[in-house]
């Protein structure tokens, strides 16, 4: 098995961590300023919806604090308890933020339904509330575009989810603007109607993010196209005869891969190891999203996992049996190489040149009916001059 370099597999990109922290702190600053502005204007303009939107914005500060913690925790290097790093903290944060988006949208839907049932009691609001809502809308939309651009470049689902959370806030500010505008124009129902549409959009986005995070937490594999590209890279490695049982799973913005490769069953262990290392290095080089690759080397296609192969005896038993075939009176063979291939064993054995002829006669008599050995190749040891 390969992939034992735990420290290398769990390395953290410090620049990615710093950028994730930077955009989240920008979000915190913007949300704090907008919350204060909305509360002040909402109280002066008697706008209940603007004050409610201020509470919604304040909840984003809490969400941003959670993102800051998850981003810092996810950037920690691998350790004994987390040999692949802490990237799943980002996945968990994406799940929570997705649920928060869905809850926000549900709250807007409930609020809109209540307004539709009691349109006559809606208090008049001042024009200042409209300007505050428009300013909040523009600020949130700008924050969303900035955060989404950075998040997509960093390939961080958690930061993408947080960016869309900012878009949800922009849409809720649009609801406030529509409600204030409708009140000023004499159409109080416009606020509730817009809230229902926007609330449904927010719920859909939140459920989507939560579902993607959940799929990652249950180790859903990559798409067929992505798997095919990784397969192609491994299959093109010199020395790889076949490839099977390739599995993938995501961990935050990165991917873990494990695969079984078939090599020539008669090459040395060290050569098989080198082929596997070459395949691993090729995947890491050609697929930047891959964090680590675990490669298992097979001497033959083992998809059937033949029970007969598993019943073949271990080396010590086979060596004792070989001694009986060759003649126990002969000197101990200098070197014996066993090849477990199919349901049988092939042997390469080095013997003294003087004993080769005797061994060959014994094998010709006994080997055809042998229960374990398919073939025994005799190599003669030449005495040094």
UniProtKB/TrEMBL annotation:
It comes from the Bacteria. The chain crosses the membrane at residues 23-45, 92-113, 125-148, 168-187, 193-214. GO terms for cellular component: membrane. Residues 25-218 form the Cation efflux protein transmembrane domain. It is a multi-pass membrane protein. The keyword Membrane applies. Residues 223-299 form the Cation efflux protein cytoplasmic domain. It is found in: Membrane. NCBIfam families: CDF. Belongs to the cation diffusion facilitator (CDF) transporter (TC 2.A.4) family. This is Cation diffusion facilitator family transporter. It comes from Sulfurisoma sediminicola.
């Amino acid at each position: 098995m390969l992939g034992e370099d735990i420290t290398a597999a769990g390395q953290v990109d410090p620049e990615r961590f710093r950028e994730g922290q930077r955009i989240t702190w920008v979000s915190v600053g913007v949300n704090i300023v907008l919350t204060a502005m909305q509360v002040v204007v909402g109280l002066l303009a008697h706008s209940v919806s603007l004050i409610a939107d201020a509470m919604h914005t304040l909840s984003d500060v809490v969400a941003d604090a959670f993102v800051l913690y998850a981003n810092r925790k996810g950037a920690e290097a691998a350790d004994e308890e987390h040999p692949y790093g802490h990237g799943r903290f980002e996945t968990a944060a994406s799940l929570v933020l997705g649920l928060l988006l869905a809850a926000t949208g549900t709250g807007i839907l409930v609020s809109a339904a209540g307004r539709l049932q009691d349109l006559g009691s809606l208090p008049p609001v001042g024009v200042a509330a409209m300007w505050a809502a428009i300013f909040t809308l523009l600020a949130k939309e700008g924050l969303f575009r900035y955060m989404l651009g950075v998040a997509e470049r960093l390939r961080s689902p958690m930061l993408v989810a947080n960016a869309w959370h900012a878009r949800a806030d922009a849409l809720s500010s649009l609801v406030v603007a529509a409600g204030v505008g409708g009140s000023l124009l004499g159409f109080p129902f416009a606020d509730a109607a817009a809230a229902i549409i926007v609330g449904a959009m927010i719920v859909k986005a939140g459920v989507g993010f939560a579902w993607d995070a959940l799929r990652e937490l249950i180790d859903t594999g990559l798409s067929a196209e992505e798997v095919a590209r990784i397969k192609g890279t491994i299959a093109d490695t010199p020395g790889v005869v076949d490839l099977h049982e390739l599995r993938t799973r995501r961990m935050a913005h990165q991917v873990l891969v494990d695969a079984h490769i078939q090599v020539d069953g008669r090459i040395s262990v060290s050569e098989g190891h080198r082929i596997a290392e070459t395949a691993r290095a090729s995947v890491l080089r050609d697929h930047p999203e891959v964090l680590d690759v675990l490669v298992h080397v097979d001497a033959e296609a083992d998809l059937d996992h033949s029970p007969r192969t598993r019943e073949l005896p271990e080396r010590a038993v086979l060596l004792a049996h070989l001694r009986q075939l060759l003649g126990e009176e002969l000197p101990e063979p200098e070197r014996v190489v066993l090849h477990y291939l199919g349901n049988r064993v092939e042997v390469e054995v080095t013997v003294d040149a003087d004993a080769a002829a005797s061994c060959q006669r014994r094998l010709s008599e006994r080997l055809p009916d042998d229960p374990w050995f398919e073939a025994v190749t005799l190599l003669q040891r030449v005495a040094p001059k």
